[in-house]
Design brief:
The chain is of the alpha/beta class and 130 residues long. 25% of the residues lie in helices and 27% in strands. The chain is globular, with a radius of gyration of 20 Å.
Amino acid sequence: MSRQAFLIIPFTNYSGRTQKMEMRLPAFTPGTRVLLVDQWIETGGTMEGAIALVERQEGRVCGLVAIAIETTQRTRAFRRNYPCVSAVLPGSSWQRECDAQFLSSFKEYRPEHAFPAPAGNARPRSRDGR
């Protein structure tokens, strides 16, 4: 029985905690173009680990995609070195809110607006209509 080989990369996540990311070897052939996708790039530590996994296997990171990419020294380097696409545009008011880690739209957020109760399971409303 043959044992699988893995490439293991330590990285520091957004909370400052060191973790390990691994990829089975070989995951792809050298020169393979890889698009890395994350929902939110905060400090860039996790993405830096993913980039290292790809590049150490001689893959080519062809771009980074996220809903939001916060503005940090590391993420500025990502934008310089790789094509980056995010739903939140750099320099926008949304970008400033993401960088502050507070979205003004959350002030008005009510889960029942996004996830209404199924018919027949409606829960009683409070006196203020919520």
